[in-house]
Specification:
This protein is of the alpha+beta class. Helices cover about 30% and strands about 20% of the residues. It folds into two domains: about 75-100 and about 225-355, no CATH class; about 105-215, Alpha-Beta Plaits. The protein has a four-stranded antiparallel beta sheet with strand order 9-10-8-11. The radius of gyration is 21 Å and the shape is globular. The protein binds flavin-adenine dinucleotide.
């Protein structure tokens, strides 16, 4: 991404941690190059729609609806990175959805605006929340939530906007596992975007000519089904920066809860602590005792095994990279050594990850 001039300089978040923004097109090109050069066979334009199980209870094949028709892809090990634990759900592996009342984090449709006058906009990300409060108090605008994140991209005439919040008629979060709810959410998201751009143009210096440069091709879903695994990462694990013997890497993000109309943050006590927790291999493994005989599945990313609050932290990109890399490495190691995913020697997995340059959070 750096070679493609797609990486911004890191920026400070709430005086606690650094984040690094990137350009989506550079990411797509860099990801294609990385995977193709490693011999990965990619299949786009394919939606997984079901599975076939073998007599032992394991997953034998994933059924895909593709542009060239319906196909079955057989495998010895499967990794569910659907974000929604689709494979786990179809395989009868237990999952959870939402908090104790079933409430999930709210989704957001992201967009970017172009033709911002960078000089006049200055550090508008600091003043926009107050401006929003003022125009809402005067009755000129209503916004779906507080806690707007409006930041410049590498080329400062483009800004990204994280401000929409999508809900169903009953006020609960749009459901990313329901096609109808997703469709309604997407339409509502675009309506909110049109309204927000009107606010930017009328009220924020430097944004007078701003327009929707692009709108994300899919709703940004924060939470749907989460795996019930051998270990569930909790809020306390994040806030207390805990270690695990079977660490596969770290999460450096706090609890970020998108609740009705707002965003709530909870941080570990930085700077009195190191500010990150380890992630255990066990959070990728379905709980064996209730997995209905499924022994060849790993679940990585935002649908891995975490409580509702733990997921509000480790659902973000950095932790998802960690889990995806570890799941792929574990699957390969298990196949090479003839071990089951459950009996895999976690030291061997850690050695492999260290050889690949992973940071496991140790000394
Ligand atoms: C609005 C928003 C803003 C965010 N901002 C940040 C941020 O600034 N920094 C940060 O680090 N994180 C951020 N996050 C969090 C982060 O982007 C996600 O949590 C992370 O991308 C989750 O990764 P994932 O791979 O687990 O799931 P996803 O990114 O959801 O990927 C799942 C993929 O699987 C595909 N898929 C799903 N089901 C099927 C199926 N049945 N068949 C075929 N394909 C399927 C989907 O199309 C998708 O491509 C944000 C999230 C949202 C929603």
């Amino acid at each position: 991404m750096r070679a493609l001039e797609g990486l911004s300089e890191p920026h400070m978040i709430m005086r606690k941690t650094l984040a690094q923004a990137y350009d989506m097109s550079a990411f797509k090109c860099a990801a294609d190059g990385l995977l193709v050069s490693d011999g990965v066979q990619l299949l786009f334009h394919a939606l997984a729609a079901g599975i076939v199980k073998s007599k032992s209870g394991n997953i034998d094949a994933v059924l895909l609806e593709t542009k060239s028709g319906r196909v079955a892809v057989r495998g010895r090990t499967f990794i569910d990175c659907s974000g929604d634990a689709d494979l786990a759900h179809w395989a009868g592996v237990p999952t959870e959805k939402g908090d104790e009342s079933g409430h999930m984090l709210y989704p957001t449709l992201m967009f970017r605006v172009g033709e911002v006058d960078a000089e006049r906009a200055g550090e508008a990300w600091k003043t926009i929340p107050k401006l929003m409060d003022e125009v809402e108090a005067s009755g000129e605008f209503t916004f779906p939530r507080r806690g707007a994140i409006v930041r410049p991209m590498k080329r400062a005439y483009e800004w990204r906007v994280n401000v929409t919040q999508l809900k169903k008629a009953d006020g609960s979060a749009t459901d990313g596992t329901d096609a109808r709810s997703l469709s309604e959410g997407e339409i509502e998201g675009r309506r909110q975007i049109v309204d927000y751009i009107r606010f930017l143009r009328e009220k924020v210096p430097g944004f007078e000519k701003a327009y929707a440069l692009d709108i994300a091709p899919q709703l940004g879903i924060r939470e749907t089904r989460r795996l019930v695994g051998e270990y569930m990462l909790t809020a306390e694990d994040v806030l207390q920066c805990v270690d695990f013997d079977d660490s596969i890497g770290v999460n450096g993000w706090p609890l970020e809860k998108h609740v009705a109309g707002d965003v709530q943050w909870m941080w570990p006590p930085i700077p009195d602590c190191r500010g990150y927790n380890q992630l255990p291999y066990r959070m990728l493994l379905p709980r064996r005792s209730s997995a209905n005989g499924v022994e060849n599945l790993l679940v990585a990313g935002r649908c891995a095994s975490m409580t509702h609050d733990g997921q509000s932290a480790a659902r973000v990109t950095g932790a998802c990279f960690v889990m995806g890399q570890a799941a792929g490495t574990a699957a390969a190691l298990a196949l090479q050594t003839g071990s089951s995913l459950y009996d895999l020697n976690s030291r061997h997995l850690q050695d492999r990850l260290l050889q690949q340059g992973a940071f496991l959070g140790g000394e």
